[in-house]
Amino acid sequence: MIERMAIAEANGFRIGKDLTEKEQKEMARRRKKKVDGVRTLAENITKLRHNLARDLKSDDKREVMTAVAITIMDKTAERVGNDDSAADGHFGVTGFRKKHITIDGDRINLKYTGKSGVEHDKSFTDAGIAGILKKNLEKCEPNDPILACGDEYSVKADRINRYLEDFGVTAKDMRGYAANNLMSDALKGVKVPSDEKERKKKWLEVLGNVAEQVGHGKEMLRKQYLLPNFEDTWIKKGKIVNLKTANKESKITWKKPDLREEVDEYFENDVTKRFFSKHGLEFGDDEELLDFLRNGKLVNITRKDLKDSENITTDPLEFADELKDSEYRTSYSEMQGALSKGSITLPAPILIKFGDTYYGFAGNRRMNLSWANGEGVKFWVINAVH
After folding, report:
1. 146-170 burial, b if ≥16 CB within 10 A, otherwise e?
2. Is 267 a domain residue?
3. Which of 1, 12, 22, 375 is the S-S candidate for 370 at Cβ 3.0 to 4.6 Å?
4. Tens of pLDDT along 293-341?
5. Which domain does 40 fall in, by range?
6. Highest mean pLDDT pick, 11-15, 286-290, 382-386
7. What is the biggest distance separating any 2 CA atoms in the chain, rounded to whole angstroms?
8. How many structural domains compose the chain?
């Protein structure tokens, strides 16, 4: 309860009263901003780390120390810090003093008091960062800022944010991304229990470990840093959210297909007829086929789940070859053109499920259009075995 109150108070909201509609909207806006920041950084993290590695070797020492600060934030999920907090004895990365840092070989230990008086004790291994900090430690006094020992410059939050601006994020986004990434990496290292109750126990165990790394309680980590659907996705499905697509608004809406328009996919396709016949399915007229197709439902299925399926093009290069057909390409281009102008609604592709195998009945272009634009696909799935 105390931590929940701290969360609300930290966001400027009242305690002990229901939030007004305006306050609810403001909380939703802030949450969306955090989610967007995590997703944007997940999309750009490889480029950012490449630039940091380059700048750690720069001849411009301020550029080097800026890269050092951001790399530490990336590895520890620590705040950027500011002068006012440092004056109160609460430090972030830009305020670290010599007394806060010890180095043993390539391992760096950070021990300091952070925001709200929380004590932190964090370690990470990085040969390049350790080498740079060792040189600064040699000329620093205990209370000297480690990022600017004896030099006539300082690395502050505004400089960090200017650097990160090229990647569409801020120092706050760095902390949010790092917390989610630490949680994601930790979950990848555990065996996923088959039972939902056991998954919840494991989630809470991992959450506690990551909260300790970040320097917060479990409730604060859940409410303030982790993506809104992270917990439910892992506990209910045993899956880890993709940080690159987290809470991304879909531009494609899927609807039930007009089944009557798809009957020719059977009657004019000998390959499909033979495959169906092999599995004991034959249809004499449109109505027989329609009665069968009506037994489907809309289901989310990933490209990975369709890897070993029949009559489905999941390889982008193979689909590119199919687009060499002018009529096929024209239809695809028309859909892509409509999507580039805004959101669109499409009839769901149709899959027939024969045991563990999916057969692509209709909608190959729609399916590949969605994947090419980073969207998920809902299929109209009919189970051939009842």
Report:
1. bbbbeeeeebbbebbbebbeebebb
2. yes
3. 375
4. 999 999 999 888 898 899 999 988 898 888 888 888 898 889 988 887 7
5. 2-174
6. 286-290
7. 89
8. 2
